[in-house]
Amino acid sequence: MAYQNQVIYNPENKQQITFIQTAAGTGGALLEMVSVWGAHSPQPPLHYHPFQSEEFYVTSGTLTVRIGNDIKVLQKGDCIHIPKHEPHAMWNSGNANAVANWKVTPALNTEYLFECASRIAMDNAQKQQSTSLLQKLRLAKDYRNSFRLAKPSYKLQSVIFFLITPFICNSNLHCKNYTD
């Protein structure tokens, strides 16, 4: 469970998150974080949030943002609002860290998604391996109310989730450990 001033790190995407306000502290209305993207962080997949909007305020460095097919580079002092259902991705293509204040409304279970993804990436880094496709699909399935891939369609994703459920729950993914 996320708590105020908790810091998590995901070595796979070079992202550190500090929780400023959590779902518990805001009655579920808001999740506020400070995110630091390491230099040359990888571009994440295009995704959207079906029930949430996001706001990013860049406090240092540059943050590259893809919204649909458009790419923007945000500088210190720039702010961007991303409404629910808007496909987007953010990463740092610069040589220095990019830092932004990041607000998600409503919070839903987004903080748990970040905690789980970070924990999986840290566990895998210790084993010197990357996150497996099954682990990524498990996260996408478990947190589909907060995060959805832009492609394939959500209907097709739902079919895939149904088909893979026996594999991800009977594998060594420790289903309970990452979703409790």
From TrEMBL:
Pfam families from the UniProt entry: Cupin_2
Taxonomic superkingdom: Bacteria
Residue intervals of the Cupin type-2 domain: 43-99
InterPro entries according to UniProt: Cupin_2 (IPR013096), QDO-like (IPR053146), RmlC-like_jellyroll (IPR014710), RmlC_Cupin_sf (IPR011051)
UniProt name for this protein: Cupin domain-containing protein
Species this chain originates from: Panacibacter microcysteis
